[in-house]
Specification:
It is built from 12 helices and 22 strands. It is an alpha/beta fold. The chain folds into 3 domains: 7-119 and 276-347, FAD/NAD(P)-binding domain (3-Layer(bba) Sandwich); 121-273, FAD/NAD(P)-binding domain; 354-421, no CATH class. The strands form 6 sheets. The protein has a 7-stranded mixed beta sheet. A hairpin with an 8-residue loop joins strand 6 and strand 7 (106-109). It starts with 6 loop residues before the first strand and ends with a helix. The structure holds flavin-adenine dinucleotide. The site of flavin-adenine dinucleotide (FAD) has 35 residues, from helix 1, strand 2, helix 2, strand 5 and helix 7.
Length: 421
Amino acid sequence: MKPKAPHVVILGGNFAGLEVAQQLHALAGDAVRISVIDQKSYLLFVPNIGLEALSNRDPAASLHMSLAGVLDEDKTDFILGQVQAVDIESQRVDYLPNERPGAAPTSIHYDYLVVALGNRLAFDQIEGFAEFGHTVTDTYYGNRLRHFLFHDYKGGPVAVGSARFHQGTQTTDIVPTAEAACEGPPVEMGMSMGSWLKEHGYQGPEQVTIFTPAEMIAEDVGAEVVDQLLSLASKKGYHYMNRTHDIKRLTAEGVEFENGSSVEAELKIIFPDWVPHQFLKGLPISDDQGFIVTDRNMRNPKYPNVLSAGDASALAVPKLGWIAHLQAAVVARQIAMDVGQLSKDEGALPFKPSVNCIGDMGHHQAFYINSDAWYGGKKQVLKTGNLPYLLKNQYKDLFFRTRGKVPNWGMPLAEFVAEKL
Ligand SMILES: Cc1cc2nc3c(=O)[nH]c(=O)nc-3n(C[C@H](O)[C@H](O)[C@H](O)COP(=O)(O)OP(=O)(O)OC[C@H]3O[C@@H](n4cnc5c(N)ncnc54)[C@H](O)[C@@H]3O)c2cc1C
């Protein structure tokens, strides 16, 4: 390490933070010193939690990857700590080492700050969620659903859908405004639940209602793709409710919506509002909700040494791992250019949003979507079948096998296989 190498402090070590750390190390090597702070010591492979829960497998056993070990391979420092405040003017982050209670609050200085902290998934704002709600957004809730399905479920109706998302208003010239944060997961869980019900001796898709606060579910993948998905779902017997506006409350009987309607459901699988962390609100780098404002180079316009990637970024709409991946690559290139390790020609590739995702549908089938229509492009691809399902599992295996360093042919290959074969 060069003695005066700029210190890059990355807040958050899940998909966005880990990828920035690994790509920056690959591009800049000793020209930077990198520290990653996360409140947990492992990466959680979020997209496969639903699949694990429905297969009665513990996501803690299959979807956690040690962060410290992975980062140590690149000589990147890992700090197990909870970030509590950021002081932009003095370039300082305050955190609490959280391995054992009682640790003394500590600070760290940065030359570059990368905010990759994701968001708070605000289940605590949904009345009745604690008693009556289920979800698949983390290990705890994945296991809770698993135990419910395999021990307590009585075979009643199922409702799957989202609360309303509250997006900031400062970057709507780059990304349109969404009414739900991320609707691939509700579509995926709705469809895979229908298959699960059938496989376990219940009726099947006819028992499942998928709902959205918006005019159209998964609006960010484009109307053509949504029309095809809805027609496929309705042929299979799924019910669909749109324009629910928001979730008012969950009860033992079902879900009540802000628009006055309701749906009966024994099992309620809910995706909440994605809300920025409280300590990011009101900072000079944050928008009116608390998401980090950046240009397409993922730099804050007022503080160019502050960059952001993933769900914490105001440009990450929808909140998607694919978008975190695109943005992380931009962040790594930007810093590598600054420290003289990439030329402008090599490094200046700004963020170009698109949606690319694979969702489980049960029965070893999945849907694959690749679209940029919502951002003004022309691409709208939907493929369904066994191949996308294999790709979803292969991608996870490749991610774990390469310790997060999926080779750069990984994505194009998945695209080629899903779209051309
Ligand atoms: C059920 C579900 C299914 C999904 N499926 C897909 C999919 O199929 N494809 C896809 O592309 N995307 C999918 N997504 C979205 C994807 O998971 C997110 O977009 C992605 O995880 C964002 O990565 P991130 O690193 O920005 O944020 P996160 O993954 O949320 O990581 C944030 C990190 O910051 C840490 N952190 C938070 N607060 C603090 C703090 N105060 N101090 C220290 N550390 C902190 C957290 O511990 C965490 O490690 C899905 C999401 C859900 C919920």
